[in-house]
Design brief:
The protein is α/β, with parallel strands linked by helices and 132 residues long. The chain has one domain: Rossmann fold, CATH 3.40.50. It is built from four helices and four strands. The N and C termini lie close together (9 Å).
Length: 132
């Protein structure tokens, strides 16, 4: 098994969606997500879009980097600009890449559906290429 950390600022939308998609659709890869400044909650539309996909799990929650820092990761992926700028502070030697997505927070449900599709189409193939 390969392990990937999806890192963003709030860990409420993009990183949670990416974590769920990777765990559901990438055999041989396990994902966690975290936020540089975690909001402490999953955006209700992020949860709803994952429920509609049939891949929501109660284990998905907004968490800070310190809660996952001791885990082993084969890859860290930043999905927002702020996390990309802050990520060099990641204290362990691990390959880090950036694949940015627009933040759907504060937008209608359709923006979350579009984000999920973009993450599935762009990010999942990159992660599979990097890790498998």
């Amino acid at each position: 098994m390969k392990n990937v950390l999806i890192l963003c600022t709030g860990n409420s939308c993009r990183s949670i969606i990416a974590e769920a998609l990777i765990n559901a659709q990438c055999d041989g890869i396990v994902a966690d997500s975290s936020g540089v400044k975690a909001s402490g909650k999953v955006n209700p539309y992020a949860r709803k879009v994952l429920e509609k996909e049939g891949i929501w799990n109660e284990k998905y929650h907004s968490k800070t980097l310190d809660t996952v820092i001791d885990n082993h990761y084969d890859l860290v992926v930043t999905v927002c600009g702020h996390a990309q700028e802050t990520c060099p502070l990641f204290p362990k030697p691990v390959k880090t890449i950036h694949v940015g997505f627009e933040d759907p927070d504060g937008k209608e449900f359709e923006a979350f559906k579009a984000t999920l599709i973009k993450i599935r189409e762009r990010l999942l193939p990159i992660i599979q290429k990097e890790l498998l």
